Amino acid sequence: MKKEDCFYLGKIVTKYSFKGELLIKLDTDQPELYEDLDAVFIEVRNSLIPFFIESSQLHKSDLLRVQFEDVTNEADADALLKSDVYLPLEFLPKLEGNKFYFHEVIGFAIEDVNFGKVGHIVGINDTTAQALFEVEHEGKQILIPMNDEFIVKVDKQNKTIVVKTPEGLIDLYL
């Protein structure tokens, strides 16, 4: 399994018991969707390795307590600490309306109600307080806040997002 075919589910943060149980900090708003998984992929030395789950249960809202097959002691568990956990993209729940996952809008065209065609999304910057569309426009980068009030329509079929940005925002970059 390749990383680009997967999404980041969370990180193994600590051991839970001396029998090899681990706690995964889930990176999701709906942890209950991932309570009954059969397997996950764990990044070990830059490779995704499948690990089968013997048992799992939610622990304190966004932690998933797991017992993997073949991880039966503290030494086995220690080897997996701080590892990233992934699932195949097909496990993502389908989103309706103007909702989208960041990875699925890369390459979408951005059109502004007032400005017209702005360019194509080349990335998402979610390291700031407000996530931003990184848009390529004639060799220049334009950053557009991913604000619900700015997003008019997400057309997944035609790979286009229509936004209505405040007057002058796009001109700042040109």
Could you characterize the architecture of this molecule?
The protein has 174 residues and is mainly beta. The protein has two domains: 3-90, Elongation Factor Tu (Ef-tu), domain 3; 102-173, SH3 type barrels (Roll). It contains one helix and twelve strands. The strands form two sheets. The protein has a six-stranded antiparallel beta barrel. The protein has a six-stranded mixed sheet with strand order 10-9-8-7-12-11, with no helix packed on it. The longest helix has 5 residues, at 74-78. It is elongated. The model has no long low-confidence stretch (mean pLDDT 91).
Topology:
Layout: E1 6-15, E2 22-26, E3 39-44, E4 47-59, E5 63-68, H1 74-78, E6 84-88, E7 109-112, E8 116-125, E9 132-137, E10 140-145, E11 151-155, E12 160-163
Parallel strand pairs: 7-12
Antiparallel strand pairs: 1-2, 1-6, 2-5, 3-4, 3-6, 4-5, 7-8, 8-9, 9-10, 11-12
Q: TL;DR?
A:
The protein is mainly beta and about 170 residues long.
Strand runs, count: 12
| Number of helical regions | 1
Global geometry: elongated
Strand order of the largest sheet: 1-2-5-4-3-6
Please tell me how large the radius of gyration is. 20 Å
User: How is the quaternary structure best described?
Assistant: single chain
Q: State the helicity in percent bands.
A: under 10%
Mind telling me which CATH architecture of the largest domain this is? Answer: Beta Barrel
CATH fold-level name of the largest domain: Elongation Factor Tu (Ef-tu), domain 3
Q: Largest sheet, described in full?
A: 6 strands, antiparallel, barrel
Q: By CATH's scheme, which homologous superfamily of the largest domain applies?
A: RimM
Summarize model confidence as the mean pLDDT.
91
Q: Which stretches are low in confidence, meaning pLDDT under 50 for 5 or more residues running?
A: none
**Which range does the strand content fall in?**
over 45%
Q: Could you give the distance between the termini?
A: 41 Å
